[in-house]
Amino acid sequence: MEFWNTTWKNSFILIGIIQDSKHPGLVCATITFLYLEAVISNGLLILLIIMEKKLHVPMYFFLSQLSLMDLLFTTVISPKTVVDYLSGQNTISFSGCGIQMFLELIVGSSEDILLAFMSYDRYVAIRHPLKYMVFMRPKVCWSMVATSWLIGCMNALVYTIYTMHLPFCKNREIRHLFCEIPSLLKLACTDITKYQLMVYTMGVALTLIPLSTILASYTLVLTAVFHMPSKQGRQKALLTCSSHLTVVALYYGNVVLIYVLPSAYHSPERDNIFSVFYTIVTPALNPLIYSLRNKDVLGALKNLLGKGPSVTKL
């Protein structure tokens, strides 16, 4: 097979879920709606957390960071997908592909770590409520967020540089929604067995280690919740935990199917669907999951609109 002279002026052809669909217009409209909903809901949630002093507690600080990551995640993918369909061009430059991969890996990897820190926050709040503001003081919270972004940046930098320096074949078609490592490696014209094994191993580690931390934290949390003497306290704690666990299930469920499931179980069509869920659908649903049943967030929204009293602290 012929090699492709990979320079920054070359381009790839993205064949994503819209191109594979029998109803591309409907899929494009759905992606547009989900993106706009994600921008509005995540942006509004960040604004509420910044403006409402009663929400200046660790749980909502982490939630604002999650909303920021979701906003960036879907912005890296959705606008280009929609514009490509409307313009009739689904190409992406070599440099654009590298930038898209880098940004997607930063946000995705950072969100992996942040969700684990958020579960630890709930563990401390429920298991050690009297020491909560000591364990989760501002310096600690900022350190956790910085660690999430730092690990994400390091992971993205290493993988993007190595992947984009591979020799690619003349076939420029990426059968995926965006430039993601597994789909791009299929175009490599060299032996990448060892690199694929490293990508798989690191993907499993970066997914299962935070996920194990989350499951361990919530096992301890739920044990404590069910021993609470107050029924109202149990309900409030379960409501908060159920929101986070729903977000974890939505995000990690699709990530596991992409990065942990053996390659024999993958297909371009299936991977496209999974990618849409964790890069477009999940960022649109997360703020709704956290806010629709959250009295503090709804109270802050009423305050912003000038329709209600100040919210009470969680």
Keywords summarizing the entry:
314 residues; three-stranded mixed sheet; two-stranded antiparallel sheet
What radius of gyration results from the CA coordinates? Answer: 21 Å
Mean pLDDT: 85
The total of helices stands at 11
Helix/strand/pairing category: mainly alpha
Tally of strands: 5
Poorly predicted sequence stretches spanning 5 or more consecutive residues: 308-314
| Tertiary shape | globular
> What is the topology, as strand order, of the major beta sheet?
3-2-5
Largest sheet, described in full? Answer: 3 strands, mixed
- First CA to last CA: what distance? 62 Å
Q: Helical percent range? A: over 70%
Order of helices and strands: EEHHHEHHHEEHHHHH
Strand content: under 5%
Would you mind describing this structure in some detail?
The chain is mainly alpha-helical and 314 residues long. 73% of the residues lie in helices and 4% in strands.
Topology:
Blueprint: E1 3-4, E2 11-14, H1 17-20, H2 24-51, H3 58-87, E3 91-93, H4 94-127, H5 132-135, H6 138-164, E4 168-169, E5 173-174, H7 181-185, H8 193-225, H9 231-259, H10 268-291, H11 295-305
Parallel strand pairs: 2-5
Antiparallel strand pairs: 1-4, 2-3
Helix pairs in contact: 2-3, 2-10, 2-11, 3-4, 3-10, 4-6, 4-8, 4-9, 8-9, 9-10
Can you give me a brief rundown of this structure?
This protein has helices at 17-20, 24-51, 58-87, 94-127, 132-135, 138-164, 181-185, 193-225, 231-259, 268-291, 295-305; strands at 3-4, 11-14, 91-93, 168-169, 173-174. With 314 residues, it is mostly helical. A 3-stranded mixed beta sheet has the order 3-2-5. Strands 1-4 form a two-stranded antiparallel ribbon.
